[in-house]
Design brief:
The chain is α/β, with parallel strands linked by helices. The chain has helices at 52-62, 92-103, 119-122, 138-150, 153-158, 182-195, 213-222, 235-244; strands at residues 7-16, 19-28, 31-37, 40-47, 72-79, 84-90, 136-137, 162-168, 172-179, 203-207, 226-229, 247-253, 256-261, 266-267. The strands form four sheets. It has a six-stranded mixed beta sheet with strand order 9-8-10-11-12-13, sandwiched between helices. Strands 4-3-6-5 form a four-stranded mixed beta sheet. A two-stranded antiparallel ribbon has the order 1-2.
């Protein structure tokens, strides 16, 4: 699926600088994407119709269905009149584990925290990334956010999607994924990172959205010790990052930013500190 399938031109009336004009604008597609395991639908997400194989791998990882891409036997993407069905085939051990999990689920699942049946599961323990060695300078984080903005073709066309990138400590920005949903963009990124053979511990996750607790959870499950965003974090996100030993950087705008947890992973490039 090409980038152009993620948006469509629509007619609109524009009012700018006191002038009314007719024209068109590209707007992002938002379609249902159903994840099916062993023939049974596990969740339906509203998403952008691109990078669905990455989405399948990343979603399976961050939802705890797999711990490694090698546990997936095959991914088949089926287009329907209403959207897409992503059929994920798991090898026997993981398939059995998922069937057992389903038997204990209290009800249906949906967007966000899929398959969650209790408050305790919503704030579930996440991997400890405190021992992961990654040092980035302020200039690296500025460069990472700049590069992410440049590598978002769907955003350039629509101004209506989120972006997530993986900034490798030695190689720079090695993967970018976009979606109408910020969680979806991060799941797609996780899948892209793993499928490319990189380790999550080798770099930082960079996102164009605010930082919620789910974003911290997904980044930690990927194994990344650093999450940086253009917008602000929630209190629970900060507390969760602190427990996970993750460096949380927010409000990265130009040369400005705020570091909330584990600042020892960020070097200040000789900047004056009060």
């Amino acid at each position: 699926m090409s980038v152009s399938s993620a948006y469509q031109a629509v007619k609109r009336i524009s009012l700018r600088d006191g002038v009314v004009s007719n024209g068109e604008r590209n707007v992002p597609q938002e379609i249902p994407v159903a994840f099916s395991y062993g023939g049974s639908t596990h969740a339906v997400m509203m998403a952008s119709p691109v990078d669905l194989e990455d989405f399948a791998v990343g979603f399976s990882l961050t939802e705890g269905i797999i711990t490694d891409p090698s546990q997936i036997e095959a991914v088949e993407i089926v287009e329907t009149e209403q959207g897409f069905v992503v059929q994920v085939s798991l090898f026997d051990e993981q398939a059995d584990a998922l069937r057992s999990r389903r038997r204990h689920m209290a009800g249906p699942v949906g967007c966000g925290l899929c398959g969650i049946e209790s408050i305790e599961q919503a704030v579930r323990p996440i991997p400890d990334v405190s021992g992961t060695e990654l040092i980035l300078g302020v200039s690296d984080l500025v460069a990472a956010m700049d590069a992410l903005h440049r590598e978002q073709p769907i955003f350039r066309q629509t101004r209506g999607v989120h972006g997530a990138g993986f900034y490798h400590g030695a190689k720079g920005l090695v993967a970018v994924r976009e979606d109408v949903g910020r969680h979806n963009a991060l799941d797609k990124l996780a899948g892209a990172v793993l499928r490319s053979g990189h380790s999550g511990g080798q770099g930082a996750v960079i996102v164009t959205s605010r930082i919620s607790v789910e974003m911290v959870q997904k980044a930690a499950i990927l194994g990344s010790p650093m999450l940086a965003a253009v917008s602000a974090p929630t209190l629970l996100a900060i507390e969760t990052a602190e427990r996970a030993g993750m460096t949380l950087v927010a409000l990265v705008r130009g040369n400005d930013m705020e570091i909330f947890t584990r600042p020892d992973r960020v070097t200040f490039d000789g900047l004056h500190q009060k």
